[in-house]
Amino acid sequence: MAKREDVYLISLTGNIGVGKSTVDAMLAAKGADILDADVVVHDLQRTGQPVWEAIVERFGADILGEDRELDRAKLGQRVFGDAAALRDLELIVHPAVGREELRRIAAAPAGSVLVLDAIKLIESGMAANCHSLWVVTAPAEQQVKRLVSQRGLTEAMAWQRIRAQPPQAEKVAQADAVSYTHLRAHETGRNI
After folding, report:
1. Which residues in 166-190 are b (16+ Cβ under 10 Å) and which e?
2. In the chain, N or C: fewer CB atoms in 10 Å?
3. From CA 138, how far away is CA 153, in angstroms rounded?
4. Residue of 160, 110, 113 lying closest to 132 (CA atoms)
5. What distances in angstroms separate CA 29 from CA 12, 13, 24, 26, one per listed residue?
6. What is the pLDDT of residue 1?
7. How much is the pTM?
8. Beta-carbon neighbour count of residue 106 at 10 Å?
9. Tens digits of per-residue pLDDT, 80-131?
């Protein structure tokens, strides 16, 4: 993908649970359009979609809920403790997400600011085609608290996901802008 000179592209990245959605909300309030890779993933993983079919073929129908949608908790338990399974899932999902992101970038209105939010922006090479790289980071303990309070993970599951990702410092070292987030009282139910 070549940079679109008529759309200002901000690549926003950071590891799981660092507060990227908070930064997205602030940028959206200023008029930016948000292209969230998590939303794209959920769209592509709906029942009957080719990505859904490939995931079920690789991991089996026992990762489906009663509604035939992916049970993300079951899939997460399967892949985050198994590097080969995680790699297989990424090989299924990431190329499809990249293609869909490119399609949505091409459809963005001229003159807009588009924030491309994804954990793997740097690793996928997408960040290189954006005008600016922003990294959101937070202490690991805060990541755990967010994952427990917002996603319902156990502490052990949260640590497993955090440890499966590259160190935050690697992303920070490449950033044009860094946002250090911290928990607010309403995110944990107590003052911090």
Report:
1. eebeebeeebeeebebebeeebeee
2. C
3. 18
4. 113
5. 16, 19, 9, 5
6. 59
7. 0.83
8. 10
9. 889 999 999 999 999 999 999 999 999 999 999 999 999 888 988 889 889 9
